[in-house]
Specification:
Blueprint lengths: L1 E6 L2 E8 L3 E9 L5 E5 L12 E6 L2 E6 L2 E6 L4 E7 L5 E4 L10 E5 L3 E6 L5 E6 L11 E6 L5 E10 L2 E10 L2
Antiparallel strand pairs: 1-2, 2-3, 3-4, 5-6, 6-7, 7-8, 9-10, 10-11, 11-12, 13-14, 14-15
C-alpha cells in the first residue's frame, strides 16, 4: 500500500498484492474515527506478483514483480519502463527520499542489494546478499547518517537454507 495523494480529508492509495496486481482506493474521512473506503472498479495492473510499491513522484509509481522493476504512470494508466531484475526484487525507498534531490531506492533481490536511481532508471549493484524467500518486506532498513552527506547505514537480514544472519554496512551515494 502506498499513499499517492492527499486532498483535505481524502486520501488516495495504490494497493498491490502477489496475486491480483494493483488497484486504487480512496479513504474519505467522515468523522474523527469514521472513514469511507471507495475502490476503483478497474485495476491499474490486472495480474502479477507485485511485492513492493513506492511513489516516485506525483502520479508515477515504481513497483517490483517476479523478475522486473516497473515504472507506471497512474494518470495515463501506462507502463513507462520495465527493467529486468531477476530473483524477486523488493523496493525500499531511501530515508529522506526526494525526487529532485535524492531520487533513490534500494533494491534487494535473492542475491544482491542494489541502488536504483528513479530519475534515470539505472540500477547499480552495491553488495552481494543472500535471501532465499520471496517476501523481503522487513529484510532491509536504511538510515541516513548526518544531514548533508549521502551516507546510509544498511541493516540487513540474510536468510538461506535454515540460517539467518544480520549484518550492517555503510553505503555512500556519489
Amino acid at each position: 500500500m502506498c499513499l499517492i495523494r492527499q486532498e483535505g480529508n481524502k486520501f488516495t492509495f495504490v494497493f498491490s498484492d502477489v496475486l491480483n496486481g494493483i488497484t486504487i482506493g480512496r479513504l474519505i474521512k467522515k468523522g474523527e474515527y469514521s472513514y469511507q473506503f471507495i475502490q476503483d472498479n478497474k485495476r491499474l495492473v490486472n495480474r502479477g506478483q507485485v511485492s513492493s510499491i513506492i511513489l516516485v513522484r506525483l502520479d508515477i509509481i515504481a513497483y517490483s514483480e517476479k523478475d522486473h522493476l516497473k515504472i507506471f504512470d497512474i494518470k495515463r494508466k501506462k507502463l513507462i519502463k520495465s527493467i529486468i531484475c531477476p530473483n524477486y526484487p523488493h523496493l525500499f525507498k531511501i530515508q529522506d527520499y526526494n525526487y529532485k534531490q535524492n531520487p533513490f531506492a534500494f533494491v534487494k533481490s535473492n542475491n544482491s542489494i542494489s541502488l536504483f536511481n528513479l530519475r534515470n532508471y539505472q540500477l547499480t549493484k552495491v553488495i552481494d546478499s543472500k535471501y532465499c524467500y520471496i517476501s523481503k518486506m522487513c529484510s532491509l532498513i536504511n538510515i541516513r547518517i548526518g544531514n548533508s552527506d549521502q551516507k546510509y547505514r544498511l541493516i540487513e537480514i540474510q536468510r538461506y537454507d535454515c540460517q539467518a544472519e544480520i549484518r550492517e554496512i555503510i553505503v555512500k551515494i556519489i
